[in-house]
Amino acid sequence: MACLHVDTSGDLVWRVGLVFWVLCALAPWKVFGSAGNASAVLEPAIVNVGALFTYGSAIGKAAELGLLAAIDDVNSDPNILKGKKLNLILHDTNCSGFRGMVGGLQLMEKEVVAVIGPQSSGIAHVISHVVNQLHLPLLSLATDPALSALQYQYFLRTTQSDHFQMRAIADIVEHFEWREVIAIYVDDDYGRNGISSLGDSLATHRAKISYKAAFPPLASDSDIMKLLVKVNQKESRVFVVHVNPDSGLKVFSVAKKLKMLTTGYVWIATDWLPSYLDISDAVSPDTMGLLQGVIALRHHIPNTDSKKDFLSGWKNSLKGSTGLNSYSLYAYDSVWLAARALDAYFDEGGKISFSNDPRLSNTPGSTLNLSTLRVFDGGPQLLAKVLTTSFTGLSGEIMFNGDKSRIHPAYDILSIGGTGTRLIGYWSNYSKLSTTVPEILYKKPPNTSASSQHLYSFIWPGETTSKPKGWVFPDNGKPLRIAVPNRFSYHEFAQKDKSPRGVRGFCIDVFEAAVALLPYPVSHTYVLFGDGLRNPEYNDLVSSVAEKTFDAAVGDITIVTNRTKIVDFTQPYMESGLVVVAPVRAAKSKPWAFLSPFTLEMWCVTGIFFLFVGAVVWILEHRTNHEFRGPPRKQVITVFWFSFSTMFFSHRENTVSTLGRLVLILWLFVVLIINSSYTASLTSILTVRQLSSQIDGIDSLIKSTQPIGVQDGSFAWNYLIYEMNIAASRLVKLKSMEDYETALRKGPDVTGGVAAIVDELPYIEVFLGKTDCTFKTVGQEFTKSGWGFAFQRDSPFAVDLSTAILQLSENGDLQKLRNRWLTKTGCSVQSPQVDSSQLSLNSFWGLFLICFIVCVLALAVFWYRVLCQYKRFTPEAEVQAEPHEMQPSAPSRRPTKASSFKNLIEFVDKKEVEIKEILKRKAAESRGPAQSSGDFSSPPA
After folding, report:
1. pTM, whole model, 2 decimals?
2. Is residue 748 one of the residues assigned to a domain?
3. Strands 208-215 and 180-186
4. Are residues 151 and 186 in the same domain?
5. What average pLDDT is seen over the chain?
C-alpha cells in the first residue's frame, strides 16, 4: 500500500502519552562477556522488535494503533515470552523511499530481531534486501504482488497480496460481462505491480486492460485533469482505481467535475478507499458525494468474538470512533506472530546474539558506519518458527502456505451510496463471488461455477439500478471501419446498395442482427473492398484487417487455417465446404434398358438358381406328386416351366411333400425380394437424370487431365494447387453464375469449357436453384469449414459476436435470414449414377446362400429316407434269386456296382405308394413263418 500524509496534530497529546508509557516500560539488559568476532551474548529481559511505517499516513496511523495495543497485550500476558518483554522501536519512513531506506538501516543498528512493516511497497523492496543480509524476519503489510518473489527469503506478508485483490476484480468484471477496463494507478511499485497482476487476472477471463492511465505519486489536480480527459476519450467505461487515499480522492474529485460519475460509468476502487473511510471519525458529505455508486474492496476480517471484544474495548477507551481499519488488525496480529515465534524460539534454547559481517566493513574514506549492522545469528531458526506458527488472531486464521502467503484470502465487496457503505457480497479464493460469508463456504466443497457466483443488487453511478454496459463510443471516438467485399456475382450474400448503410445482403443482415444483441452500442461504417468488376481476393481482404487498415471484415469470408493465424474469427454463421459440380442430362431410351438393373453376374447367378431350385423341387416331389411324373421329355419341360414360372408366382404345379413346400416357400420369398429390387432399380434408371461426364467426385477429377472451373477470388484456387497438387494450368477462373453455366455446357473438349466446377456449398446451392437442376453435385464435400466475421487479433468483438451468433442460431433468427435471402432449391444434393444404380450379387448373396443351404439340407433328408427304404427293400430281390442259387451247376455271382446303382435309380423312380405296399407285404410275409414255427414243436432227437 502506498503511503499518505495525514494531519495528526490533534492526536499529539495521546501519542506523547503512549511513547512515555513505552519508555517507562524499558528494562536494562544483562550483558555477559564474549570472545572472537561475535558480539556479546545477551540474556535479554527485553527483546527489540522494529516497526517501519509512515505514521502520518492513513495506513501508518491505523497500523500504529494496532502495534501499540498488541505490545501492551503481549507484555501483559504472563503465558507468552515467560517474563521477557517486547520493546517496539518505532521508526517513521516519512513516505520517502530514500528516507525509509536510511531509517531502516538506522533501526537495524539497534539489534532488533524482527521488523514489522513497512506498508510502502517501494520501501519494502529495499528493506527486503537488507533483512536478507542481516537474517531478520520482515513481517510486512505491503501488498505488492512482486514481493512474493523467491529472492526475498526473509519477507513475509501478514496481510493479503494484491494478486488476490486483482483476481477478485477480474471475477467482478466477468460477472457483469465486461470485456475491457481502464486502469488508473499511481506510478510506483505498488501501482505498477498491482495493475500488472490485474492484467494477468483479466486475461484468464478473456478480458483485458484497454488503457493504462498512470500518474506520479505527487500529481497535481491539473495533471489528473489532463489524464482523465484523455481517459474519457476511450471506449471503455469501466475504471479500476489503484492509488493511495490522497491521490484517490483527487481522482474522484476531478472525475466529478468532468461528469464521469454519471450513468454509464463504472468505478472500482481497491482496498485503499475502505481503509481511508474506516479510520475517519466522520466522512464529510462532500467526500461521500464524490463516491456515490463506487464499488470498493476491503480485506475480509472474520467477525469473531475476539475481534468484537477488542473493537468494543478500544472504542470505549477513546469514547468515540475506533480509528481502526483492517491494517490495524493486521499490525496487531503481526506483533503477536513475532511474540509467539520468539516464545517457541526461546523454548528450544534460542539465544539473542549478533555477529559482524566482514562484507559490511567500513570502506576507507567513507563516513557510512556499516560495521554497526550485524547479522542476527538465530535468524534462520526464528524465520522457521514464524512460518510454522499457527493461531487465530483478530484478522482471522494466521497460517502460511508453501508460498509464504496467508491462507484463505478473502475480500468484502462494498457499494458506496448515501452517507455510508453497504456490503453486497464477498470474494474468496475458495469459491469466488458469493453472498455467503467465506467461513461458511470453507466447510463445504469448493464451487466456482458461473451459476454459483452471486452479488446483491446495488445502485450504480447516476443513481440507477441497471447494469452499465461498460462500453460506449464517445462523441469524438472513431466508429469501426468494416470492410465488405464488393462482389461481381452472388449478390445475395453482399452487394453495394444506395441506402444510407451502403451495403446489403445476407451476411450484412446477420452482422447487424448480431450487433443488436451486444450489451453495448457499436458505432460502425461499411467500406467496400474491391472495384466490383471482379470478385476481390479474400486473402487480401483478411490481410487488410490484420494490418489494421480496417477494424473488421464482414461478408462471405471462409475460415481457413492461414487466415486464423493473422486475425480472430467469430463463431461460423454459415456452414461451408468445397464440392464438385458436373453437368447432367436426361436418360435416353435404350432397347436393352430392361437389363440395366442387374449386373451380368447377378443375372447369371439368378438364372442358375431358378434351374437349381426347380430341379430340387422335382426331386423332392417326383415320388409323391403325379404332376412331376411321366415321360422324360415331359419331366424336363416341367422342371423348366416350374422354375421360371415362380418368377411371376404363376406355377400351376402343386407341391405335396413337406420338404418341397419348405424349399418352395423360401424360394418364393427370394423371388419377391429380387422382383421388388428389380422394379425399383429400373424405375430409378428410367426416370432420373444422369451425369454426362465421367467425373464422380474429387478423386476422379484429380486423376483426369480435364479443366476445372474455380470461382474468381475464392480460396479454392490455392487449395486445389497446394493441397490437392492440381496443376494451375488446369484451373479456369469463372466470375459469375452465367460463366459457370456456359463453361459446364461447353464441356472439357471446347475452349473455355470445363469438366466440373469446384466451389463452396453455399454458392453452389444458389447456382443449382437458378439453373433448374441442370447440374448436380457429385461425390462428397471434401473440406469442412464455415463463414465468419474477421476482427483484429485480441479484439473483444470476436468473442461477443460469437455469443450473439449462437443466440441467433438458437432462437431461429439466423434461419429466417437465410430463408429470406437465399434461394430454396428442390435439387437433390447428390446425383445418382448409372453404375451405382445397378444391383450386384453383393446385395443378394446372403439370400442365395440361405436358399442353397436349405435346398442341400432338404436333399440330404430326402436321400436319407430313400436309402433307409432301399435297405428294407433289397432282401426281396435276394429271395427272388434263391431258386437259381439252389442249382449246383450255377456259379456264385454278386451284383455289380452298375446294377446296384441302376436298381437304386429304379427304386427311386417308383411311386412312394408302390414302395410302401411292397414293404408292407414283405413285412407280413416275414411275420408268417415266425408264427407257424411257434405253433409246432420240433421232434425229439
Report:
1. 0.65
2. yes
3. parallel
4. no
5. 82
